[in-house]
Amino acid sequence: MTHSVLHPSIVALVSLASNIAANHPNQGLCQLDKLKEFGVSEEQIDLVVEIARHIRDESAKKLDDKFDQAFKACFPPEGGETLSTIPVAGGACCTPTPSGKSCC
To answer: What is the mean pLDDT of residues 53-81?
Structure first.
């Protein structure tokens, strides 16, 4: 099996995006100097940040929606659905970022 090595700039971009999407307290800020050293443009970094934030925010919304559905199911109206019958929040696998960029 051949192991491909990623360019350090790609690793830094992935790390930055992962930190942002995961709401890590360091936010991937340590990657910015590395990315500048590798010649990654501000526009490219901005796109990665936008996508990471979009994924983070979309994830939080879906979790909130799922919680809201479960909460409502705890107090069903007479003859209403129960927690075990509510559908899981879903929707499109990938929605565009606010500026219309694809995160997929």
So the answer is: 87
Q: Measuring CA to CA, which residue among 50, 64, 53 is closest to residue 22?
A: 53
Q: Tell me 85's DSSP state.
A: G
What is the C-alpha R_g of the chain?
A: 19
Tell me the pLDDT tens digit for each residue of 11-59: 999 999 999 999 998 888 999 999 999 999 999 999 999 999 999 999 9
Q: How far is CA 67 from CA 18, 56, 74, 89, in A?
A: 24, 17, 11, 9
Q: 33: number of CA atoms within 13 Å, CB side? A: 1
91, pLDDT greater than 60: no
Domain boundaries of the chain, sorted by first residue: 8-74
Dihedral sign from CA coordinates of 34, 37, 42, 47: negative
Half-sphere exposure of 90 (CA within 13 A, CB side): 4
Check residue 98 and report its DSSP letter: T
